[in-house]
Automatic annotation (TrEMBL):
<feature type="coiled-coil region">
    <location>
        <begin position="57"/>
        <end position="126"/>
    </location>
</feature>
<keyword id="KW-0175">Coiled coil</keyword>
<keyword id="KW-0963">Cytoplasm</keyword>
<dbReference type="GO" id="GO:0098535">
    <property type="term" value="P:de novo centriole assembly involved in multi-ciliated epithelial cell differentiation"/>
</dbReference>
<dbReference type="GO" id="GO:0005814">
    <property type="term" value="C:centriole"/>
</dbReference>
<dbReference type="GO" id="GO:0007099">
    <property type="term" value="P:centriole replication"/>
</dbReference>
<protein>
    <submittedName>
        <fullName>DEUP1 protein</fullName>
    </submittedName>
</protein>
<dbReference type="GO" id="GO:0005737">
    <property type="term" value="C:cytoplasm"/>
</dbReference>
<dbReference type="GO" id="GO:0098536">
    <property type="term" value="C:deuterosome"/>
</dbReference>
Amino acid sequence: MEAEFSEMRNELQSRDALWRRIQLECHQLHTEILKIGEYKDMQEIQIKHQSSCVQITEQLENKNAELLLLAQSQEHQREELNKIRNHLYREEQSHRSEQERMKTEISDLTEELHQKEITIATIMEKASLLERQLKMELEIKDKLLAKQQLLDFRYNVIKSENTHLKEMV
């Protein structure tokens, strides 16, 4: 997209340069026409140079025709330049809109990520608390199991003594 903008800018600059050259040529032609007009006036005073006057008039007409063609070309160039400018403006607006949409999307995603990070931190806190509770419960159960095993052992010892005593009796 940047390449298109650059290409359009280069095209605009090229057409502006052409426009300036055309204006300069128009100015030069106008100056020549004025000079030719002055020359024509001088020739009218001098009747002996009538044939030159006809030639100058033809040149003037030719220059006028050239000026007319240049003016038409200039108008066409102006129209093309306006079309390119309008296209460039639309492209820039589209690019800006796309940038704004992306900024909004990035902002939304950042907010969503922030909320997920908060949720993860909360879950990690709860998991840590549950882990501590589970360790405490495991310690209590280990102690109870150890007591149970001790009681079972004592019970078996007493049972075996009882059996032994019954046999003796």
